[in-house]
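task queued by scheduler; priority normal; single chain, no ligands, no partner chains; default sampling; output format set to structure tokens
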Amino acid sequence: MLVLFGALASSGAACERAPGGLAGKPPPPPAPPPPSSLAAEPPPVAAASDAATIKGRGPGFAVAKPWVSFYGTSAQMGDLAKVAAAYRIINIDADPGSGNFSDAQLKALKAGGKNRVISYMNVGSCEIYRDYWSKAPEGFVACGPNRAAHLGSYEGYPDETWMDPSNADYRKLVVEHVAARLAARGVDGFYLDNLELLGHGERTKNGPCNARCRQGGLDLVRALRERFPDLLIVMQNGTTDVTRLGTTGGIPFPSLLDGIAHEEVYAPKPDAEAERELLAWKAMPFESRNGHPLWIAVEDYVGSCKNVASARAAMAKAASNGFSSYVTDESGGQKVVCYW
């Protein structure tokens, strides 16, 4: 899906999704709401593997900035060579079902290895406009038919359903099909959305997540790291203590990540809680990723690429905390590249 990053983050303003589009991704085509129901008790979480099975800590980001997040088509992006020259980290939607970019265009954006091209991947919910909502290869269960994994519709977004990451069939679909075919396209890593689900708790009607669900989310990311040890893994928005202090397979969850990112930290209005969360991650004693620190990024929105003053103010605040900053139009947009 062409996702707009992780709207309902567990903190303040960043928990809101912009009207007319999913946070951090372009609005999908109109579609009727999928049937949804709260899952009964999901299947048991697979036994945690020994920490020794983790093959490294991820490659890390050798260059932390500048970066760009874009969810449109290659035609909407415009001059790919210009983007490749301007940005070292490029986040796009490379889902083969979307048809946004050809293999040759992905190669052009990578610029001979100078840039890291990562792809959006929804793990906390599933959109009905993804081809794997309704069908999946033999041996997999698509999102739609997997009613046991449904945690209810995404409030205000009838095209999306929260999914239980502790559900074995869903975890297998994400790791072995969704992620695997992205990796096969040659992307450098994954940009994980909607893991803020893990901070929801089980009392909310909008994506309830109990202790088993929370641990399942941590375990799903560990499964991604085990299967793709050489690819980058970035988590967007789900930066609460649930993930920062969580463990999976006997290891700290943060050690699985190459980076974290958060939307709407400084614009359109400051989110002090989101900033505190990022600073708490920054203060942690991380092992280096091949000599590189954990990448900490923010994505802010100022309505238009013409709002230079607002963009520069947000970037300056991010830089003062050592965060990598990108500023663009709006959470429900991101189909234009801003050059500040």
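post-processing summary
- The first helix runs from residue 74 to 77.
- The chain has nine helices and 13 strands.
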